[in-house]
Amino acid sequence: MLVALFISSVSALAEDRPSQSSANYVPSLGDLMAAIQLRHSKLWYTAKLRNWPLADYELEQLYINLKEATRFYSNIPATSDMSVLDRSAGHVGEAIKTKDSKKFR
């Protein structure tokens, strides 16, 4: 009888909690900025070690994180002009593709 009572109370608690799907999740701006900072560091280290495939991956992930920040937080000043980011990412991407450490710096 105790087991049945425990199971019914657990199922009642589960029904009370709103289901949170990943589609509704919005990371905090601080979390996004921490991820961006980490990606930036990884990008620098991968290029320093001349691991160009990993550098390319980190650049792509960094760019995605920045775009997510502007999509979720459209009220921050950086969202008004992303052309600077696009140009910078293009230059870094070109240096990675040509495996040019000097140009990367």
What's the β-strand tally? 0
DSSP summary: helix tally: 5
The SSE string, one letter per element, is: HHHHH
Write down the domain tally. 1
**Unreliable residue runs:** none
Class inferred from helices and paired strands: mainly alpha
Q: The biggest beta sheet, please?
A: none
Mean pLDDT: 80
Radius of gyration: 22 Å
- Rounded to the nearest angstrom, the distance between the terminal CA atoms is 70 Å
Helix content range? over 70%
Q: Roughly what fraction of the amino acids lie in strands? A: under 5%
The shape, in one word, is: globular
Describe this structure in words.
This protein has 105 residues and is mainly alpha-helical. It has one domain (27-104). Helix content is 71%, strand content 0%. It contains five helices and no strands. It has helices at residues 2-16, 29-48, 52-72, 83-97, 101-104. The chain is globular and about 40 Å long. The mean pLDDT is 80.
Name its key features.
105 residues, mainly alpha, 5 helices
Lay out the secondary structure.
Layout: H1 2-16, H2 29-48, H3 52-72, H4 83-97, H5 101-104
Helix pairs in contact: 2-3, 3-4
Gist?
The chain has 105 residues and is mainly α. Helices cover 71% and strands 0% of the residues. The protein has one domain (27-104).
